[in-house]
Write a structure and sequence with these properties.
By secondary structure, the chain is α/β, with parallel strands linked by helices. The longest helix is centred in the N-terminal third of the chain and has 19 residues. It is globular.
Length: about 260
């Protein structure tokens, strides 16, 4: 069984790319379940209900998020009402939404999707190691063998540490948040697939998604600039995880990098 995890979808360019590119990737790679991080899908900051529905129509079945998911009006209601959208599980218990979900793949296999957020160089948060293990125990008690973790974190050390901690307990740990696809995909000794960052789906001629000039001006002056999503050189970035349905282990992992065009504004 093949599970596709799409790196952070950024703005309208990333959503447009999904419409044009995702169906072909799903067919070519024989994808049975598509997961995407969508916390930057609306103008590069947050996700609206309309954008979520657009991505669902494009073929995304489960949507993970991170610290920016709250940036749009109605975010709390969206997280409460939409079963396919999750937020990091290590927010306080009373926060709207859910941190994990069980979803049925196209083959009828139940897959647990767990969203966690890092604490290094990030906002204060509960321990992703402890909270992650609690959710994994509940998923396994429910008979779920395949568990995919989206670890939305800044530090590579924290991402690697969590992956080693969960080796053999989950099918894969896929990093998001830094928007730059890494080249360290591997299978850990106990059968957990890993990559530090799946990358960003959107304009690659950018500074992690936004047009370069205002980002550069912000660094040069120290004054906050209005940042706008780039739609130039669009590419879909992610990782394809091949899994054994019986054991729940990862048996293959490869990067996906699909460029759409070199035009845009």
């Amino acid at each position: 069984m093949n599970i596709l995890l799409i790196g952070d979808i950024f703005g309208k360019g990333g959503r447009r790319l999904l419409r044009h590119t995702l169906p072909g990737v799903v067919d070519r790679e024989r994808v049975d379940l598509t997961i995407a991080n969508v916390e930057n899908a609306s103008r590069g900051l947050g996700v609206s209900r309309e954008a979520a529905q657009e991505m669902k129509k494009a073929g995304v079945q489960v949507m993970t998020s991170g610290n920016h998911v709250w940036k749009r009006p109605g975010a709390a209601e969206l997280l409460e009402e939409e079963p396919f959208l999750v937020r990091p599980a290590n927010y306080p218990p009373h926060v709207p939404g859910k941190g994990s979900v069980v979803w049925e793949s196209n083959l009828g296999v139940r897959v647990g999707i767990l969203n966690l957020m890092g604490r290094v160089f990030m906002d204060p948060m509960d321990c992703p190691f402890r909270v992650g293990e609690e959710h994994i125990s509940r998923l396994r008690a429910d008979g779920v063998r395949l568990i995919i973790v989206d670890f939305h974190a800044e530090a590579t050390s924290e991402k690697l540490a969590l992956a080693w901690y969960l080796d053999g307990k989950v099918t894969a740990v896929v990093g998001t948040h830094t928007h730059v696809q890494t080249a360290d995909e591997r299978i850990l000794p106990q059968g957990t697939g890993y990559i530090t960052d799946a990358g960003m789906t959107g304009g690659q001629d950018s500074v992690i998604g936004v047009k370069p000039k205002p980002a550069i001006d912000s660094f040069l002056t120290g004054v906050h600039q209005r940042l706008e999503p780039s739609t130039k050189n669009l590419a879909l970035k992610g990782v394809l995880v091949s899994v054994c349905e019986k054991s729940g282990k990862c048996i293959g992992i490869k990067r996906i990098s699909k460029f759409f065009d070199h035009q845009g504004t």
